[in-house]
User: Which sequence fits this backbone?
């Protein structure tokens, strides 16, 4: 199986990860914000697939996750 990058994913995104991510391991997700999409990827598989969320959906997810 091969995975091809989507033509809809912009290049030149600035990826960030949480300050809660320790330096002792790369096990976290990275997030990049574009104009109309919030992109999420696995820090262990940088060239791998990414998830894309509308800003509203991302806000809902973060709100829910922080309350759990």
Assistant:
């Amino acid at each position: 199986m091969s995975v091809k990058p989507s033509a809809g994913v912009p290049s030149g995104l600035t990826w960030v990860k949480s300050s809660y991510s320790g330096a002792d391991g790369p096990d976290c997700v990275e997030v990049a914000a574009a104009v109309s999409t919030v992109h999420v990827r696995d820090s262990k598989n940088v060239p791998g697939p990414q998830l894309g969320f509308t800003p509203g959906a991302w806000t809902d997810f973060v709100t829910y996750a922080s309350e759990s």
